[in-house]
Amino acid sequence: xxxxxxxxxxxxxxxxxxxxxxxxxxxxxxxxxxxxxxxxxxxxxxxxxxxxxxxxxxxxxxxxxxxxxxxxxxxxxxxxxxxxxxxxxxxxxxxxxxxxxxxxxxxxxxxxxxxxxxxxxxxxxxxxxxxxxxxxxxxxxxxxxxxxxxxxxxxxxxxxxxxxxxxxxxxxxxxxxxxxxxxxxxxxxxxxxxxxxxxxxxxxxxxxxxxxxxxxxxxxxxxxxxxxxxxxxxxxxxxxxxxxxxxxxxxxxxxxxxxxxxxxxxxxxxxxxxxxxxxxxxxxxxxxxxxxxxxxxxxxxxxxxxxxxxxxxxxxxxxx
Length: 320
Hints:
This protein is of the alpha/beta class. The chain has nine helices and 15 strands. A seven-stranded parallel sheet has the order 6-7-8-9-10-11-12. A four-stranded antiparallel sheet has the order 5-4-1-15, with helices on both faces. The protein has a two-stranded antiparallel ribbon with strand order 2-3.
């Protein structure tokens, strides 16, 4: 006999988290728990403000409607990306088709003092990969910070994310401050400019590799091999069902590109599932999951090594 429970949750964020010029004070979302016999499966539904097309309230309505149909025996997936992703994860856990093995490595995210990142990376064993958000400050400052990090750590590979913040002129100002011999150690720069054409021109002119992120979710975008494009950054919460995530990974690999599974600032439950997805679909690539430090608590499932307090299921708000 099928059973289902939906929970609403809210986690306070650390001060200073800014997404597309808006301060994110809390992270809100939903959990879905499906049960059948002795088995159960969980999924997280958490639209990301400023990035998801749907709101949390819209996702809640869609999820509750889907649950009623599922309890009556239907098995299709919702259309909203965040709901489709969370439902497909819950179904995969229920069917025991989501592998348990997880990749808990994370590229450290630099959101503040670069000196702190240098110390953290210097102590990191093995492959040194970090991520830096650029485009929040002046392009010249970003260029100087990135160049400093690459100079300080000769074995560092940097992933950069501009979220389409720059005009071509600003992007060139950034590149001007990156020493030519360091540019090859920029693993990729996600979407430096507001259009794909400008981003491709930036890669061609500077020799700095780029990656597609937002473009992957545009209806008229086709993933093809292009000079200067090295990677795709896949955010499953914004992409949709697990099958769609797997298709994007396979398409990138077929073109010789790196595919990176990346966080949309999920809770610890969602992050642990992303770690499992990364180990399953992109086992050779460090995922981009270092966002738990932006939150003030974990929920339901712990991230290994985190000292944040963990909120139990009993403290969540049940909706049905």
